[in-house]
Structure formats: C-alpha cells, structure tokens
Amino acid sequence: MIMGCFISIEGGEGAGKSTQIRMLAERLGAHGLAVDITREPGGTEGAEAIRGLLLGGGDDRWGAEAEALLFAAARSDHVAKRIKPALAKGIWVISDRYLDSSRAYQGASLGLSDAAIMQLHAIGSGGFLPERTIILDLPLADSRERTKQRDGGESDRIGGRDDAFHQRVRDAFLAIAEAEPHRVRVVDARGTAEDVGERLFAQIADLLP
Ligand code: T5A
Fold first, then answer.
1. Are 20 and 190 in contact (CB under 8 A)?
2. Overall average pLDDT of the 19-42 stretch
3. Domain tally for the chain?
4. If you write DSSP's letter for every residue of 8-33 in order, what string do you get?
5. Is residue 122 part of a domain?
6. Exposure winner among 58, 85, 86, 146, fewest CB in 10 A?
7. pLDDT tens digits, 136-188
8. Mean pLDDT across the chain
9. What is the pLDDT of residue 1?
10. How many angstroms is it from 63 CA to the middle of ligand 1?
11. Percent of the chain with pLDDT over 90
C-alpha cells in the first residue's frame, strides 16, 4: 500500500510556519505529490472547537494539566479523523504544529514533565509521530517584530504570555531537536522567506520518493 508522509512544522509565534508550509506544499505539488495542509490545535470539526476553548479567554482560563489534556484531546481527533486517513490514501500531510508544541509549551514552559506529555500522547494518539519535524528557529525579538507587524500587538491566550515563557519554548524546541536528530531538524528562520524555504526543503528532500 502506498502511504503518504507526515511532516510537522514547529517553532515559536510568528516564526513563519504558515508561510513556509504554503511554499513547501507548492513545491511538493510540483513533484506530483498530493498534499494536505492542516494545523494544531484544529484540523477537524471537533479539534477546531477545542481550539476556540484553548486560545480564547484569559490566561488563567485553564491550569497547565487541563490545557495539556485539551491539546491531547484535539490531537487525538486530528490524528484519527484527518491525518491517518489522508496518509492511508497516499497523501502527504503537513501540520502547522503537532506534539512537540505540547512538549515545549505545556511541558517545558508550563512545568509538566515530558514523560507526562508523552503519556497523554500515547493514550490519545497511540504515540503517533511525524516522519520529519522541522523547527523554525527565530530569536524572540525577531518573532515579536513579525507578529507585531502582522497583528498590531494583538495576541491570543497563549501567544500573549511573557518573554520568559516564550524563551523557554524556544529552548525546549532546540532541546527536542538535539535529543531526536533523526526526526527533528532545526532551520534558521531568519532571512527572506525564499532563503528559509531553501533551507527547509534541504531538510526534507531525502523523504521524496
Ligand atoms: N500551542 C499549540 C500549544 O501551546 N500547544 C500545542 O500543543 C499546540 C499545537 C497556536 C497557539 O497554540 C499554542 C502555540 C500557539 O501559541 P496559532 O494561531 O496557530 O496559535 O499561531 P502560531 O502557531 O504561533 O502561528 P502564527 O500564525 O503566529 O505564526 P507563523 O505561522 O509561524 O508565521 P507566519 O507565516 O504567519 O508569519 C508571521 C508574519 O511574518 C511574516 C509573515 O508574512 C507574517 O506577517 N513572515 C516573514 N517576514 C520576514 N521574513 C520572513 N522570512 C518571513 N516569513 C513570514
């Protein structure tokens, strides 16, 4: 059976994930591959409803454990109803964020252990992992500048957390990449979108049929 390939794109706020995913999908399409672009939290009707619960409201709306459980629940639905069925049809799936966001944001940055996040993922999604994960790495100041230009200072419940939180997120992503070099690659997200796109493509080229 021909199987698609699952790629996740990770990184801090405004690192350029959506921009790069659109460019990557076009490039994969030019190789004759069918591509499904999706996102987390979200990607299915149920998971999009959970997204509203997670990203709306005040910072104290959920405690760390409840937040991690909601992300895991959304992911469970996303994997079962969208990601796995697409892969089974031979479609390449690119997800804007996946498990490593939970490890970086709810794990390292909100103080839950990595083992706890992985346990939730084992229960919710059978521990299902992407074949390749790209972390778009951008210094905090650049990331703030990009989101400010785009959103004029508005941010959601999680994006609005302070710089210390977002620095922990960045450090956590880099630590994941160091621990899992076979699956996870870091791409410098500075420079033009085209330059970043070239660096990113070089990190997935070996997956092409
Ligand atoms: N979350 C998510 C968790 O806490 N745990 C989890 O398990 C999961 C799955 C999701 C939030 O949920 C959290 C993380 C997040 O806080 P979201 O709305 O999906 O929130 O937002 P983000 O994922 O943070 O993504 P953004 O939309 O903010 O940013 P992107 O997609 O990284 O960046 P993009 O492409 O929109 O670019 C940002 C701006 O920069 C420009 C773009 O045009 C845009 O204006 N840009 C560049 N400018 C200069 N040079 C480049 N190379 C550029 N590339 C893009």
1. no
2. 98
3. 1
4. EEEESTTSSHHHHHHHHHHHHHHTT-
5. yes
6. 58
7. 999 999 999 999 999 887 889 999 999 999 999 999 999 999 999 999 999 99
8. 96
9. 61
10. 23
11. 95
Residue environment code for 69-88, b if the CB has 16+ CB neighbours within 10 A, otherwise e:
bbbbbbbbbbbbebbbebbe
CATH number of the domain where residue 144 is located? 3.40.50.300
Q: How far is the CA of 57 from the centre of ligand 1 (A)?
A: 19
**Tokens 């997670």 sit on residue:** 54
For residue 10, being part of any structural domain is answered with yes
Domain of residue 66, residue span:
6-207
Q: CA 208, CA 18: separation in Å to the nearest integer?
A: 21
Question: What's the rounded Cα separation, in Å, for the pair 56 and 156?
Answer: 6
pLDDT score recorded for residue 154: 87
- The answer to the question of residue 116 being in a domain is yes
Give the pairing type, strands 6-11 and 132-137.
parallel
| Residues 102, 45 contacting (CB under 8 angstroms) | no
- Tell whether 1 is covered by a domain: no
Question: From the CA of 90, how far away is ligand 1's center (Å)?
Answer: 27
